[in-house]
Here is the input.
Amino acid sequence: MNERDSEQVARMFVEGGYTLTRAEEDADAILVNTCSVRDQAEQKALGKMGMMGKHREKRAHVVYGFMGCMAQSRGEELFERIPHLDLVVGTQKYHRVFGYVEDILRKRMEERMDDPSMSLEGHTVEEEGIWIPGGGTRNGKLVDTGAEEGSQNTIRDHVAAGKKPSAFVSIMQGCNMRCSFCIVPDTRGQERGRPIADVVEEVRQLAEQGTKEVTLLGQIVNLYGRTEFGKVEGKSPFVQLLEAVHEVEGIKRIRFTSPHPIGYRDDLVAAFTYLPKLCSHIHFPMQSGSDRILKAMRRPYRNEQFIEICEKMKAVRSNMAITTDVIVGFPTETEEDFQATVDCMKRLQFDNSFIFRYSKRKNTPAAEMDGQLPERLKEERNQELLRIQSEIAVPKNAALIGTRQEILCSGPSKTNKERLSGRTTQNKIVIFDGDRERMTGEIFEVKIEDSTGFTLFGKAVAGP
Ligand code: SF4
Here is the structure.
């Protein structure tokens, strides 16, 4: 979701005449989009922003900004932590970032023009860049973390960057749940869905530019539109949206993330029987296999309900892959609770799991709970679940050796630029050799020849 929000901001800068760069030392504005889900992510963002302050020594006009969840939750406090910071912009204001940066840069330009010492010495903007009085940037700091009606409708544009086989589409913002470990309802606000027609139009434009796969994004994606749009013929707004997106010509694959057991009803299960573009994969956060811990987490479902949905999904598509998120070491988690999670992982045979050690988040109920577990125990449980997941996934992937899998080629592999990479409908990564120009963005079959843990290796057998 952060990646998608960042893309929207980037697009506005491109439209405004800027060029995107990965070289910090060349940038006129350095913006960091932040996540608050784990403390580690916040510390990393703070550390990175601190280090990047050095660029101001050579380029005094550089604008530094934090966007996103940490910006939303910490607000002005961030100026104390990072003295060179200019801008703090919350999660409902991404569309305003470009204007704010422009304002700051313009003011710095005007201040420079007004400074007599600069005209006496005959400096020009071209020679010196934009000058800031006193060499600092204390003036013009800006924080905007307010709520804004309709902000969910502003995440809708994409950066045109050649062939883009796969794209994220933000369909809603916010979350009305109150999971006791989660800071999202505070940072992202209440659930707000975009109109179906707007989402479809965005997908249509992507398809026109060659995109073949879209991933619909929401904090609880299956609850899309429940507060704004009604059911039609017993179908939830989310299923109506899936049907509408399915109609878009050129789109071959549809994914969504992340659904929640609440609201995961039979109409959504059934959609996988008549919407063939829906990929055979769901990422479905379980969090814990213990009902007692789910209750403490304020997750309003029982583990048996979670299992029932997974089994229904496997029944409608025999090749359905399910991946999940698990939190280990939640306050008061006993050996018995942990064992319930282990049992559930073994029963459901997840294709992959993202396992997180519980970490306290400020202003969340779980952070104040008695029964916080020692880090050593959390780590032990984490390692145990990783071991179990690996025992499940390795033979599952090895069983694919010798089969043909249809993949969407995304381009060069991230780990080896000489080779190509793609994903199967089950969202498994496949690495293979081939012609980058010809194959990127195309869907074709690859024969699987090898697997290492979570990655498959193969040979294109029927290609473009
Ligand atoms: S469902 Fe729970 S974990 Fe997910 S965003 Fe909402 S509050 Fe956070």
Observations:
- Residues 16 and 117 are 31 Å apart (CA to CA).
- The first strand starts at residue 29 and ends at 34.
